[in-house]
Amino acid sequence: MDAATTITAGIVVLTVITIETGGAFMLRVVGGKQPANALQTSFFRAGHAHAGVLVILGLVTLLLTSAADVADPWKWIGPLGVLVAAIVMPAGFFLSVLGSDPQRPGRLVALVYTGAAILAVGLATTGISLVVTGANA
User: Fold this and answer.
1) pLDDT tens string 59-87
2) Which long-range contacts (CB under 8 A, 24 or more apart) does 56-60 make?
3) Rounded mean pLDDT of the chain?
4) Which of 87, 91, 83, 90 minimizes the C-alpha distance to 121?
């Protein structure tokens, strides 16, 4: 791995600490120590789960494109798309249900859909760049 990939991977691994903190928050919500209605609880769960899964997926795509020696800029576009989605999607889940007792998600739920689109582009770019690199090897 080159220096930029190694540094990026290190930063991403460190972000897992924030996801761990979110897990502690989720335990308070589920345990009834943090007030939340059913909508908030389900959206908080979804946000927490998406953050964890997408960060790991982002690391995997970063490592795959590095190991396959995918050419620049494709080596970065796909993994960074996945990692951006790991921020945007969970933010949509959490921010769209802020408030004392929301009955439905707010406008920021659009971030979930935006993150999904970014994720799709990142994964497609990663997959195609890996196939092309493999075919050219």
Assistant:
1) 999 999 999 999 999 999 999 999 999 99
2) 57/82, 57/86, 58/12, 58/82, 58/83, 58/85, 58/86, 59/9, 59/12, 59/13
3) 96
4) 83
Q: Global pTM? A: 0.93
Distances from the Cα of 37 to the Cαs of 4, 19, 51, 68, 86, in angstroms?
A: 43, 21, 21, 46, 24
pLDDT value for 70? 96
Residue 1 has pLDDT above 90, yes or no: no
Q: How many CB atoms lie within 10 A of CB 29?
A: 16
The angle that helices 3-30 and 38-67 make with each other, rounded to 10 degrees, is: 160
50 has a pLDDT exceeding 90: yes
Residue span of the structural domain in which 125 resides: 3-136
Q: How many CB atoms lie within 10 A of CB 67?
A: 11
Angle between helices 38-67 and 110-136 (to 10 degrees): 20
If one counts the domains in the chain, the total is 1
Write the CB contacts of 108 (distance below 8 Å, at least 6 apart in sequence).
91, 92, 95, 96
